[in-house]
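The instructor's notes for this session suggest beginning with a concrete chain rather than abstract definitions. Hand out the sequence below and ask the class to guess, before any prediction is shown, which regions might be ordered.
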Amino acid sequence: ANFLRIGVGARAVAMGEAHTAVANDAYAPAWNPAGLAQVVQKEAAFMHAQLVEGLQYEYGALALPLRRGTLGLSGGYFSTGDIDGFDKTGVSLGTLTRSFDATGSLSYGLRVGEDVAVGVTGRYLYKRLVNRTASTVAGDLGLQYHTPLEGLALGVVVQHLGGKLKFIQDSDPLPRTLKLGAAYQYRWALVALDWQHPRDQDAFVTAGVELRPIKWLALRGGWKAKDEVGPGFRAGAGVTLKQTITLDYAFLPFGAFGDTHRLSLTVRWGTSSQATAVSTASALQPSSSQPPSPATISTQTLIPPPLPSTTMTEPKRLLLRDIP
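After discussion, reveal the predicted structure:
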């Protein structure tokens, strides 16, 4: 199940995969399901990863804000291409049936209190290797915390808790991983750092930076200390169009095997049910003054005017959103 180690979403990959405290969009289930609690619009995300030796990884995700929390649906398909087969004596058997890995996930993120979000993911895994198949289930648990220090967020996630993919006598354990992350945003700069400890590897760190010199453009760079093949550096960029469509790209050198690329598309639409609930609650508050104009509610950030402490409020943003 090593395909689970492949990073999804060009934004996160370009930032060195230091995304435990940063995740805040439809890709959040792949990094920290608690990040779904930050999604306030419906989002659909798609990624194509062109890897080495004809390997490809396709990933899609959907985030649906509810009146309480956000639901996430996601799936991935990793294709190994055609495999040359040989018998025990080394005689060629020709090209064998395509092998692949597939996964489908159901996630939920919820804001708990003013500054804490929690999340959970349930995942089904299926693997086909020539004419044999295996499947299992797994899960992730995550948390994000917005500290009293403005702009600083912390995160923790445990990924791939579950069984093994078993082929007759042989089994393939899942890459269970513990991640701790921190991220700090100052104006248009975001810096992130992760400490990761996979079950079968020594602990290592990853780091990334995202700069937004203008509101529709993001420039990214990252470093992954534990990169088995490539030098560890990666880079990328993103462009947001009309606040509803984001195109992201990531470049990853892969040593002697060549370079790899990630392309991502994120589409947002509608308004969140959470924001609707806030607006409704605001309208029901008695007031002796004139009612506010609809223009006082920002359509870009969906943050309502100040409300009494007894009224439902919009979840606090932990970090910079893709929407300026």
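Then share the key points. Helices lie at 10-14, 28-31, 273-284. The CA atoms of residues 234 and 252 lie 5 Å apart.
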